Amino acid sequence: MTELTSAERIAPGAIEAWQRHLGREVDAGALRTELVEGTLPRAVRETAARVPERPALAVDDEAATHGELDRLAAGVGGWLRAQGLAAEERVILCGGNSLNFVIAYLGILRAGCVVVPAGAGLTGPELRHIVEDCGATCALAQGDALDRLTSISRDGSSLHTVVAFGGEGSSGTPPLQEVISESEPLEPGDESGDDLAMLAYTSGTTGWPKGVPLTHANLLSSVRAAMRAWRWDANDTLVHALPFSHQHGLGGVHMTLLAGSRAVVHSRFDPARLCAAIESEGATVLFAVPAIYEKLATWEGIEEADFSSLRLPVAGSSALSPTLARRVSSLLGSVLERYGSTESGLSVSNPYDGSRKFGSVGFPLPGTELSIVDEEGHALEPGDDGEIVLRGPQVFSGYWNLPEATEENFYPGGWFRTGDVGRVDPEDGYLTITGRLKEMIISGGLNIYPREVELVLEDHATVEGAAVVGVPSERWGEEVVAFVVPVGDDRVDEEDLSAHARENLSAYKCPKRFFVVDELPRNEMGKVLKDELVRMAAEERETG
Which of 198, 248, 204 is nearest to 405 (CA)? Predict the structure, then answer.
């Protein structure tokens, strides 16, 4: 057995992977210093000073230059400081995509406070859990969340100040523009990269979400590594329709503000509108989740859309099937699939220059170290399936107020246990995700990783996407059940698909039942809701 690399040494193959991304030799120490340097407020100020009049961000019908964003953020920061908020106090930011969301976000950081992003659709109990868990004293919100948080603030919680950032305030809450007009602009403070910038809550499928503290260094190193690998510069224009309350959507804003480039963001996804924006804005980069790519690929107007300006369509947040990746690549240009999480930031990516391998997420981004380990934390050889563990400046250091969860999820040397299962190809070093530890199916006493089965099914010509789950079985303990989405109007022949599975998988891994569905149930970031699929399969067996 091989022990994981200690904190003093760089994992085998890491520097070679970084050099493959960057196309040059790498000084590991100098690279890591570059990745973590500074803070987000200072980076935003530096860009604003360099290109104040350059368009920075357009969200639906609202737009601002880099200089305007910096000035408005300074106003919000000044107001928060005037309310007595101290450094690293938690401030909840809850709402849909808007220009004001970004202004409020940057203003909270300018005040030296910690942003706690929350999705617009969170319920009252979910918001209350976050408030109580992080001890937030202030919230900036819009829509129904504004009323929910105002109610929480009047109910004996730590929350005492609520500001409306979308339109007029309600229930006595001041609107954001009034806050800005009444405040003294605040210059970036003397925070360090090790200071907290964000407390993000994971969208866990069981129990309450856990808080993930992220420093300025974590956030900056995550996006800087990807920017270098993807050749991002001031001439780029990003288009996406992903929520700012998630790292995928907000990460694009970070890249835009660091590079002095431009982003065009929609509050809701519509294929016609998104494609029109790519053409009219001359977009060079597209961020999307597989569910969006699936809808784009089946949109009736996709063949006539003009993607000639697009150099980089990026997919993330959940697995992209090889069939869909090929279809999207034939329309938009070669799609680049990458891998990351709230805890580990952007950590693995297919290369910008070189082969983008469908069904794989590539190799570690600059600064990231990766290993595959067994159940006891020993490093495995390339080609073996095991848990993916990561280390690097973008990886968080532990869960908020949960020391036991932190201890369970880290190995000595700072290695974060992702809970994902994968294997590294011994020939080319590319990582393939084969499942989740918690989703592993045990059938007849044998371990089955769902993603391995899904990849085989998705390689069938009639299958657009697949999701595989384990359903309780008296005979097997769990039986393998597959849900498949057909390509366009194609008909999926279950006997043919079953034969395809038997040709490519050991018998015990082959699905016992198939369900052909129009679409898979997903959350707002495109992750398949597998608990719902298990319920559907169990109900069908009971009623069938």
Answer: 204
